């Protein structure tokens, strides 16, 4: 009997202490509840560390919290693809780029909020997202690539180039481009240049194509400080890559007058056509390039040799953003 009374007293005392604790919390935080405080704490944890979530395939794998990976840090270099339209070739293409570039190259996918779910459904891509080797970043809601003009305008605004800080060497690639794993060269071999891409045939313009191109971020920002894309276009400036190339040649001529050589630190250094075609081919052929761009469109006669040298070109998208004018 005495044991029962003692147990009853302990239960009552425990309940009384719990009631006092709840009322103390209620008085200190009149607008909060235990549940809301817990939810806020859980949310703060979720936004500070990656939290695994069930994959769409239901295979026991987990995909990362993409929000937590959108602002991961990068160092001196980064590979970037900007794509608002999800295509089935994107995930294998991006994974191939990551494999060829190696672990020292983070890959940043800039896309729309609507496309994030499609990227997150890949278990293979999810492993790279969790490690930070591949990151997804959201584009401004106003960005929509409907034609070449919209791409040109976006690439000549500061937003992207400022968001890529502190990386200096930026490899821009598109869904219709590819790096060839058989190549003896690497992207790092071209770090001396401010801009390098597939050389453009003279009848189509000047400079190097930007669809697969390596650029120095600080040089791009310096140009955007001096010139405005919308008000300074001249003949030969139809596309953003040609506009950047022509501005760089203008700076290079100014430096030549001052006796500054391209090889000097901080000076504009552009590759010759012979060097550029070893980096990438599009309208001008080269037997063993590091990369290719729009080969389905321009180099149909080279497909047989590409089957042996760069069979990965088959992952390239055949669809591309059409120009609003004729001639490219």
Automatic annotation (TrEMBL):
Pfam families, alphabetized: DUF5672 (PF18922)
Organism: Hyaloscypha variabilis (strain UAMH 11265 / GT02V1 / F) (Meliniomyces variabilis)
Transmembrane as UniProt keyword: yes
Residue span, DUF5672 domain: 134-293
UniProt keywords, alphabetically: Membrane, Transmembrane, Transmembrane helix
InterPro entries tied to this protein: DUF5672
Superkingdom of origin organism: Eukaryota
Region of interest: Disordered: 49-69
Record-given protein name: DUF5672 domain-containing protein
Membrane-traversing stretches: 12-29
Compositionally biased residues, Polar residues: 60-69
